[in-house]
Amino acid sequence: MELDRGFLNLEKLMSATALRHRVLTSNIANSDTPYYKAKDVDFSSFFDGERLKMDATKPMHFKDGVPMSASGVTVDDNALLWGDSNNVEVDMEVAKMTENALKYQAAAKLVSQKIMMYKTAMKRNI
């Protein structure tokens, strides 16, 4: 039995939020590092890559559903710089981490509900 693509998309969302958590944590850890530029994760690159993967004409064009040139991590060059040429705003990073945690929790809840749905369906078919 093949599971629906919803599980795959939720897995990608959870992986992206885990990566974003590491990136945001790194931003906070480097908030006092001169010349450090805040980074973030572009979620669309994870899902656009999947769409592009389906359209690929050669398997070498893409790796793991994401274009090889895009890791999904972006650098914020447009933010205002502090006196030490660092652009990390700790309050903004904490707010982003809170938003990110909510996305992760929502995805985990959906995975749990999908598993329960499949369990219920299998019990009824036995």
Radius of gyration: 19 Å
Order of helices and strands: HEHEEEH
Q: What is the percentage of strand-forming residues? A: 5-15%
DSSP E strands, number? 4
Binned, the helix content reads 55-70%
What's the N-to-C terminus distance? 15 Å
SS-derived structural category: mainly alpha
Strand order of the largest sheet: 1-4
Spans of 5+ residues with little confidence (pLDDT < 50)?
A: 51-56, 60-70
How many helices in DSSP terms?
3
The biggest sheet, with number of strands, parallel, antiparallel or mixed sense and barrel status, is: 2 strands, antiparallel
In short:
With 126 residues, the protein is mainly alpha-helical. Helices cover 59% and strands 8% of the residues. The strands form two sheets. The chain has a two-stranded antiparallel ribbon. A two-stranded antiparallel sheet has the order 2-3.
Task: Offer a few descriptive terms.
two-stranded antiparallel ribbon; Flagellar basal body rod protein FlgB; mainly alpha; flagellum; two-stranded antiparallel sheet; 126 residues; 59% helix; bacterial flagellum; cilium; 3 helices
Give a verbal description of the structure.
With 126 residues, the chain is mostly helical. The chain has one domain. Helices cover 59% and strands 8% of the residues. It has a two-stranded antiparallel sheet with strand order 1-4. It has a two-stranded antiparallel sheet with strand order 2-3. A hairpin with a 2-residue loop joins β2 and β3. α1 runs antiparallel to α3. It is elongated and about 65 Å long.
